[in-house]
Amino acid sequence: GQQLNQSPQSMFIQEGEDVSMNCTSSSIFNTWLWYKQDPGEGPVLLIALYKAGELTSNGRLTAQFGITRKDSFLNISASIPSDVGIYFCAGQNHQAGTALIFGKGTTLSVSS
Amino acid sequence: DSGVTQTPKHLITATGQRVTLRCSPRSGDLSVYWYQQSLDQGLQFLIHYYNGEERAKGNILERFSAQQFPDLHSELNLSSLELGDSALYFCASSVGADYEKLFFGSGTQLSVL
Lengths: 112, 113
Hints:
- The complex is a heterodimer.
- Chain A is built from no helices and 11 strands.
- Chain A is mostly beta strands.
- In chain A, strands 2, 4, 5, 9, 10 and 11 form a 6-stranded mixed sheet that branches. A 5-stranded antiparallel sheet of chain A has the order 1-3-8-7-6, with no helix packed on it.
- In chain A, a hairpin with a 5-residue loop joins strand 7 (61-65) and strand 8.
- Chain B starts with a strand and ends with a strand.
- Chain A binds chain B through residues 31, 33, 35, 40-45, 48, 50, 88, 90, 92, 94, 97-105, and chain B through 2, 4, 33, 35, 42-43, 45, 48, 56, 58, 90, 92, 98-107.
């Protein structure tokens, strides 16, 4: 079945640094989503991508849908303490009729 | 607040028991999805209902079942519980049937002792 490989598994950074994480798939997706999960809460949608090559920003967050349709990355600029959490990528292939598949997450820690 | 309501927030029960988790989707959303989150498996898709009908099944055990009622709320029933069923169970909703832009509830933490 479809698999999403998300890396890195965890990151420890200083406040103010930029962060980059990515997701790769064994098959093609036509939707990529990025979520953030805080402790004790459900995942919250950050950015949605619908077209290969699409680059979308949401404040300090920027995500891109890879040209091959098998990967996506998320960048966070000038990190702040409230960026701490688990970031998940999720992808779906509408034509294949499959469910939204999630990566295993990147845990981000920010020290001030 | 995502607008998706899940109850209860915590549930502690014993092996062999049966529990019911409840979810109310966002106003206007017709789809409800159930996901299981455990430390080693991440977020695993269980089942999807759209406007009262089962739309897709994922890695849902036969001991688990779900339904979506006419008022669009959904219940996930877990029976013959085992220690390994301990996990966070999330409900999510979306407007249509195509999964995109899922909005998640805060989850039910199930502990099977």
